[in-house]
Amino acid sequence: MSYDLAAIVLIVIGAVLVIASLIFFLRPRWLLGWLKGMAVFGALILGIYTLSIAVSLTGYQSLEGMQTVASISTTRQGDQLWRVTVERKNQAPITEAVHGDQWQMDARILRFSGPIRWLGIAPGYRLERLSGRYTSLEQERTDPRTVIGLSGGRWPDLWALDRQFNLPFIEGVYGNATFMPMRDGAIFDVRLSSSGLVAVPVNPQARQAVEQWGGQ
C-alpha cells in the first residue's frame, strides 16, 4: 500500500471515529447508555475472571518460603525397575512401578501480581508428575517410559491459559524439574520455593547414591 493510499484510509477511519464521537456527545443519552453497558460488561468479565482464579486455586497449595512438599522412597524390583512411593502433605501416598535409573518430579507454580498480590495471596504450587529417566540416551529414546500424574485435570487451568495468553495479574511458571538416582532403600525429600524444586537425600542409601552419581 502506497503512502498516499494509506493516508486516505487513515483519514477515513479517523473521520468516522470523530463523527461517531460527536454524535455520542450531541446525544448524551446514547453515550450514557453505552458507558453503562461497558461498565456492566467490564464488571461481568472481572467477576468471571475472579471466580476462575478462585476455582483454580483449589487445585494448588500455598507456597511460602522453602518447604518440603513430598518424600520419595525407592525399592528395587528388578533390572531398571523400581517401586517408588510418593508421600505428600495431607494426601494419600502413591506407590507405582517406575522404569529407569533416575526419578524426576515436575511442579507447576502460580505467581501473582497487582490486586491479587495486594490481597496477600502467596504463590501456589501443584506437583504435576513423577517420571522415570534412563542414564543412557539410547534407552531414553527407545525403552519404556513411566509417567505418573500427581494431579487431576481441573478446569479452568489458569496455569496453561497464562502460558498461552499471558493473563493479567498471573504468572504460570515451571518449578524447575528435579531428578535423582534410584537406589534400593533410598529416601529423598523434595523441597520447593518460588524459584523451583530441589531434592535432598535424607538417609545413607540416598546420600551414597548421590555421591556415586556425582562421581561418574
Which properties best describe this structure?
transmembrane helix; elongated; Multidrug transporter; transmembrane; 216 residues; five-stranded antiparallel sheet; 10 strands; 2 domains; 6 helices; 36% strand
Protein architecture, described:
- The chain is of the alpha+beta class.
- The chain folds into 2 domains: 3-57, no CATH class; 63-214, no CATH class.
- Helix content is 39%, strand content 36%.
- The chain has 6 helices and 10 strands, in the order ααβββββαβαβαβββα.
- The strands form 2 sheets. Strands 1, 5, 6, 7 and 8 form a 5-stranded antiparallel β-sheet that branches.
- A hairpin with a 5-residue loop joins strand 3 (81-88) and strand 4.
- Helix 1 (3-26) packs across helix 2 (28-57).
- The longest helix has 30 residues, at 28-57.
- The protein is elongated and about 80 Å long.
- It starts with a helix and ends with a helix.
- The model has no long low-confidence stretch (mean pLDDT 83).
